[in-house]
Every structure is written in structure tokens, then in C-alpha cells.
Design goal:
This protein has one domain. The protein is mostly helical. 70% of the residues lie in helices and 0% in strands. The chain contains two helices and no strands. The relative contact order is 0.06. It starts with a helix and ends with a helix.
């Protein structure tokens, strides 16, 4: 069960950066926006996702090691 969940997460993380701009931003919200603004928003979202994934991953590793010791 855990392998299946890990495989899904890994597959999603591998496909997401390769996907087109359709999943990165809503075309209605950014239709008339400046190109620099759109690229800045995308970069900001990517940074926030990276920070969140690194914090959650670090917590998972920490708690995994704590559980392993007990």
C-alpha cells in the first residue's frame, strides 16, 4: 500500500514540471496580465511549493527515524 502511494506521488512530481502552462495558471486570471508578472507569479508558486515539500519531507524523515528507534 505504501509503495503504491509513493509511486503516485513520485509520478505526479515527475510529470508536473513537464506539463504545459495550462496547469500552472488559470487563463482567465492571467489573460491580460503582463508577461513579467505572470512569470513572477509562477516562480513564486514554485518556490512556495518547494519550501512546503522540503519542510514536510524533513518532518517525515524525522518522525520516521523517531518511530524506527522505538
Amino acid at each position: 500500500m505504501k509503495v503504491r502511494t509513493f509511486a503516485r506521488v513520485a509520478l505526479t512530481m515527475a510529470i508536473w514540471p513537464l506539463a504545459g502552462a495550462a496547469i500552472h495558471a488559470c487563463p482567465i486570471c492571467f489573460q491580460g496580465a503582463d508577461a513579467h508578472l505572470t512569470s513572477g507569479v509562477r516562480l513564486g508558486v514554485a518556490v512556495l511549493i518547494a519550501v512546503t515539500v522540503s519542510v514536510v519531507g524533513t518532518c517525515a524523515v524525522f518522525f520516521g527515524r523517531v518511530m524506527k528507534r522505538q
